[in-house]
TrEMBL record:
Gene3D superfamilies: CheA-289, Domain 4 (2.40.50.180). InterPro entries: CheW-like_dom_sf (IPR036061), CheW-lke_dom (IPR002545). It comes from Variovorax soli. Residues 27-171 form the CheW-like domain. SMART domains: CheW (SM00260). This is Twitching motility protein PilI.
C-alpha cells in the first residue's frame, strides 16, 4: 500500500512539473530512466503511464528480453526488459530490493502496441538545456536509437525513439 501511495505521489509531482513546464515556457522533452548500466531518454509524447513493478506471467518459448505479460490497470501488456533488449546480454535476475525501484513504462496508446518497458529507475524529466553535447547515431545503429546526449556531469544519455522501436520486427517478434 505504501508503494502505491508513493507512486501516486510521484506521478502527481511529475504531472505538476509537466504542467508548470508548459505554462512557464520551459520544454521538458524526455523522461529520463536508467536500465542496467545505461541511461536512456524516452520522448514524452511516446511514453505512456508509469506502473510499479508487477511480476509478469511468463510466456514459453519467448526471447530472453520478453519477460511475459501482466495486467496493468485492466489492460494486458507485454513486458520487455529494456536493458536486455538494448544490450543483447542475458537478463539479470535482480533482487527484490532492486525490483522495488523498478518501474514499468508503458508505450503511449497512440503507438498501438500494448507493451511496457521494465526500467531499473526513474530519474525525472530532461530538456535540451540539461545537455552540453549531442551526437547523431552511427550509420549501423538500430533505427530506434536516437541521438546520444552528454550532460554537464559527463554522463551519456541515449535517446530511444519509442515509436520506431514499436515498429521494429525484432521488437515485435517475441518468439525464441
Amino acid at each position: 500500500m505504501a508503494n502505491r501511495d508513493a507512486l501516486r505521489a510521484f506521478q502527481s509531482r511529475l504531472a505538476s512539473r509537466l504542467q508548470a513546464a508548459r505554462t512557464s515556457g520551459v520544454s521538458a522533452s524526455w523522461l529520463a530512466v536508467e536500465a542496467g548500466e545505461a541511461k536512456y531518454l524516452f520522448p514524452l509524447g511516446h511514453a505512456g503511464e508509469i506502473f510499479p513493478w508487477t511480476p509478469p506471467q511468463s510466456v514459453p518459448y519467448a526471447q530472453p528480453w520478453f519477460l511475459g505479460v501482466a495486467n496493468l490497470r485492466g489492460g494486458l501488456y507485454g513486458i520487455v526488459q529494456l536493458s536486455t533488449f538494448a544490450s543483447g546480454e542475458p537478463p539479470s535476475a535482480g533482487s527484490e530490493a532492486a525490483r522495488a525501484q523498478s518501474r514499468l513504462v508503458a508505450l503511449n496508446e497512440m503507438l498501438e502496441v500494448n507493451c511496457a518497458l521494465l526500467i531499473d529507475r526513474l530519474v525525472g524529466l530532461r530538456g535540451v538545456e540539461a545537455f552540453t553535447a549531442s551526437q547523431a547515431p552511427d550509420g549501423d545503429a538500430p533505427a530506434w536509437l536516437g541521438h546520444a546526449y552528454t550532460d554537464a556531469a559527463g554522463e551519456r544519455w541515449q535517446e530511444i525513439n519509442l515509436q520506431a522501436l514499436s515498429q521494429q520486427p525484432q521488437f515485435l517478434s517475441i518468439g525464441a
